[in-house]
């Protein structure tokens, strides 16, 4: 192989790996949705109706043939009564946040809506950020 062909081969290999990773993410999100649906004892038809999508489209998502948008994932999460964030992480849309007892408790609470969970987590993160921001200058000051 000629020396000038090596960069093209490297790029081609990298593109192939990315394609495989995206394909794996699609398979994973579909399998995860199916597992959550089965655990909730909800039929494909019931979830499709609750999420506002067609039965064939949801079936294609579950089989890893389609990659749903963030909006569709949110509708599916609402239909399953699970965290939309969990689906976003599984689909590779969001990075996984470090776990905390507070975050886990909020996300696990079945009596809260997805919107309520998100608002609580946003307020919690804002308080943590504000406390961290105001604590830094205090640590660097000296008392007279």
Automatic annotation (TrEMBL):
PROSITE patterns linked: HTH_CROC1
Keywords annotated in UniProt: DNA-binding
InterPro entries: Cro/C1-type_HTH (IPR001387), Lambda_DNA-bd_dom_sf (IPR010982), TransReg_Diox_bact_type (IPR050807)
The protein's name in its UniProt record: Helix-turn-helix domain-containing protein
Domain HTH cro/C1-type: from-to ranges: 33-87
SUPFAM superfamilies, A to Z: lambda repressor-like DNA-binding domains
Organism: Pseudonocardia hispaniensis
Pfam families linked: HTH_3
Superkingdom: Bacteria
């Amino acid at each position: 192989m000629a020396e000038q062909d090596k960069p093209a081969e490297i790029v081609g290999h990298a593109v192939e790996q990315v394609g495989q990773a995206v394909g794996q993410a699609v398979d994973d999100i579909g399998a995860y949705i199916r597992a959550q649906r089965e655990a909730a004892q909800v039929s494909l038809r019931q979830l499709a109706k609750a999420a506002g999508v067609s039965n064939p489209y949801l079936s294609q998502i579950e089989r890893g043939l389609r990659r749903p948008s963030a909006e569709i994932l949110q509708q599916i999460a609402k239909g399953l009564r699970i965290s939309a964030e969990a689906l976003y992480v599984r689909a590779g849309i969001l990075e996984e946040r470090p776990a905390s007892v507070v975050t886990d408790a909020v996300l696990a609470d079945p009596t809260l809506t997805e919107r309520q969970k998100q608002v609580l987590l946003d307020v919690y993160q804002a308080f943590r950020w504000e406390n961290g921001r105001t604590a830094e200058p205090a640590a660097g000051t000296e008392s007279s």
